[in-house]
Amino acid sequence: MTHNNPHTATPLAQRGPSLGKAKGAVVLVHGRGATAQSMLPLADALAQPEWLYVAPQAAGHTWYPYSFLAPMRHNEPGLSSGLRRVNTVIDGLIAEGIPPQQIVLLGFSQGACLALETAAQRGERLGGVIAFSGGLIGPPGTPRDYDGDLGGTPVFLGCSDVDAHIPLERVHESAEVFERLGADVTTRIYPGMGHTINADEIAFARGLLARLGTSRMAKAPSE
User: Fold this and answer.
1) Which of 21, 52, 151, 155 sits a CA distance of 20 to 30 A from 130?
2) pLDDT tens digit string along 112-144?
3) For 172, how many CA atoms within 13 A lie in the half-sphere containing its CB?
4) Residues in a beta bridge with 188
5) How large is the greatest C-alpha to C-alpha distance in the chain, in angstroms?
6) Could you tell me where the beta strands, DSSP code E, fall in 66-195?
7) Distance from C-alpha of 104 to C-alpha of 127, rounded to nearest angstrom
8) Region for residue 27 given its phi and psi (left: phi exceeds 0; alpha: psi -120 to 50; beta: otherwise)
9) What sign has the CA pseudo-torsion 64, 31, 5, 115?
10) Using CA of residue 140, residue 33, residue 19, residue 155, what is the dihedral sign?
């Protein structure tokens, strides 16, 4: 860890088969005050044991210090360092033979915001992006001039209509941005849910992994 890059080389928790045997990989990004290890039980809830689950740890249990709606400069250097850390994990998986189309980013709260921002900035086709209670990062009016084409990447945005941390308008703005980037966007707003994850969201993520796993197996003989 360095002062300007606090999340570099932080621990990486994982669960599941080896890279050579996995149908794909899910990058789990934890929220503020949580740990990488605390994300691994999602592997049980998703019930797709043939996937590899990897979770990077934020230094100090927080990717960036202030609200995701704060001016970006106020959240530095944590924000840029967190984006680099998640990108490093993705790039490492690709280098080990997992194609981008079989990599899913999944985050909750602050981790959902970081996952969405990573995907938008990368601008490439991924297996999917699952954001439980999150939105793109930056204050109102932030330019969303991302480059790239997500090429039909499934993007899921699930959030309460009364979430104390995630304004509903930011969820809808994020959905519009990802649609413009060529993603296949699903937005589900849950009345009165609060800041949590519900069974419907888990079911969507489970179904996405199941479909991607089937697709991977169908392509395997010709690879």
Assistant:
1) 21
2) 999 999 999 999 999 999 999 999 999 999 999
3) 5
4) 158
5) 50
6) 103-108, 128-132, 154-160, 184-190
7) 5
8) beta
9) negative
10) negative
